[in-house]
Amino acid sequence: MEEETKFSSSSSQEKPQELALSLPNNIEKKEKKKPLMTIEGYPIEGLSIAGLETCIIFPSLDLAFDIGRCPQRAVSQNFVFISHAHMDHIGGLPMYVATRGLNRMKPPTIIVPTCIRATVEQLFEVHRQLDGSELRHVLVGLDIGEEIAIRRDLKVKAFRTHHRIRSQGYVVYQVKEKLKQEYRGLSSNEIKSLKSSGVKITDTTSHPEIAFTGDTMSDFILDEGNSDVLKAKILVMEIIKHADKFQNKAILMIHFSARYTVEEIQEAMSKLEAPLAGRVYTLTEGF
């Protein structure tokens, strides 16, 4: 928590330059921005402290997973995916939307489990009544197994997780169009002619890039419908049970308890053995 700056009545006549000297460094001038964690080519930032807040940000994908307290860095993301309705994962939603409105940014798209969509809309309505804000946004309910395209080359699919309340995780897929085998020897003019006549000349392929579980028990790992979660290039989660099933290139561990120090977390991770050793990262911002 930032240290509170207090001024006594005797200091009210201080000269501006003298007053500036008494301010903490983080107020007097901006801190240098820390370099982002980069895993498998993806910059990642955010916070995840069990029971307090979780918000995992992928700036290059323009999205964040969950938004417990709305860190400033999350505001610039156009998409937020909510895994479940516990306060440390959803509490920052109104502030996120309000801050974007204050900065005249376009209304964000918020994806939530379909079962809580109506209640989340009620949450926004309460805040509208409280402060008169428009809180403009697009709210999408997504069921397990359903997909949403967020870019021409990106789609996100919801998958089943197991928590105390209704929950779901998300897999981000990279989508590519590949020329069909039978057309690969044709000239560009021939391909253009086929395309203009309505012939589908490409096959669509998708590859799981990022998987985010949110809070869950290990049961999701044994669900046959979640195979892509275990194949995604990066898996963001909080458990290591059934580690032999993880085919991911990298695993980002999140949601550590605040009772642990960074040193304790790092020490525990350093003791991991194969098949996890060497591909596990930890998010300890805020500890």
Describe the structure concisely.
InterPro entries: Metallo-B-lactamas, RibonucZ/Hydroxyglut_hydro. This protein has 287 residues and is of the alpha/beta class.
CATH topology type? Metallo-beta-lactamase, Chain A
Q: Tell me the CATH superfamily.
A: Ribonuclease Z/Hydroxyacylglutathione hydrolase-like
What is the overall shape?
globular
Contiguous uncertain segments of 5+ residues: 1-31
Average pLDDT figure: 89
Q: Regarding CATH, which class?
A: Alpha Beta
Order of helices and strands: HHEEEEEHHEHEEEEHEEEHE
Q: State which percent range the strand residues make up.
A: 25-35%
Query: How many helical stretches?
Result: 7
Tell me the structural class.
alpha/beta
Q: Please count the beta strands (DSSP E, at least 2 residues each).
A: 14
- Report the C-alpha radius of gyration, rounded: 23 Å
The span between the termini is 11 Å
What does the largest sheet look like?
7 strands, mixed
**What count of domains describes the coordinates?**
1
**Proportion of residues in helical segments:** 10-25%
| Spatial ordering of strands, largest sheet | 1-2-3-4-5-6-7
| CATH-derived architecture | 4-Layer Sandwich
